[in-house]
Amino acid sequence: MQHKLLEVTNLQTHFKTEDGVVPSVNGVSFSVSRGETLAIVGESGCGKSVTSLSIMRLVASPGEVVGGEILFEGQDLLKLGKKEMRKLRGNKISMIFQEPMSSLNPVFTIENQLGEVFRIHERLDKKQARQKSIAMLERVGIPNPERVVGYFPHQLSGGMRQRVMIAMALACNPALLIADEPTTALDVTIQAQILELMKSLNKAYQTGVILITHDLGVVAEMADRVVVMYAGEVVEDASVFDLFANPQHPYTTGLMKSLPKMDEQLEELDSITGSVPNPLEMPKGCAFHPRCPKATVECTQIKPQLEEYRANHLVRCLHT
Amino acid sequence: MSSFSPLHHRGGEVVRNYLIKSVLQIIPVLLLISLIVFILVRVTGDPVALMLPETASDEDRMVLTRALGLDQPIYVQYIKFMGDLLQGDFGTSYRYNLPALPIILERLPASFELAIASMIIATLISVPLGILSAVKRNSYLDIFITGASALGKAIPHFWLGIMLILLFAVRMKIAPVSGRGTFEHLILPALTLGVGIAAETTRLIRSSMLDILGQDYIRTARSKGLIETLVVCKHAFRNSLIPVVTIMALQSSALIGGALISETIFAWPGMGLLIVQAVNGRDMAIVQASIFVVAFIVILGNLIADILYRLLDPRIKYK
Amino acid sequence: MTTPIQTETAQIVTVRKRKKSGSLSRFFRLLWKSKVGTIGLLIMAAIVFVAVFAGAIAPHDPVKTNVSKRLLPPMWLEKGNSDYPLGTDNLGRDVLSRIIYGSQVSLIVGIFAVMLAGAIGGLLGLVSGYYGGWIDAIIMRTVDAFLAIPSMLLMLIILFVMGPSLGTLIFTLGITNWVKYARIIRGEVLSMKERDFVKASRTVGASDARIIFTHILPNVTSSFIVVSTISVAAAIISEASLSFLGLGVQPPTVSWGGMLSDGRQYLATSWWVATFPGIAITITVLGIIFLGDWIRDVLDPKMKAKGSK
Question: What is the pTM (predicted TM-score) of this model?
Answer without folding.
Answer: 0.79
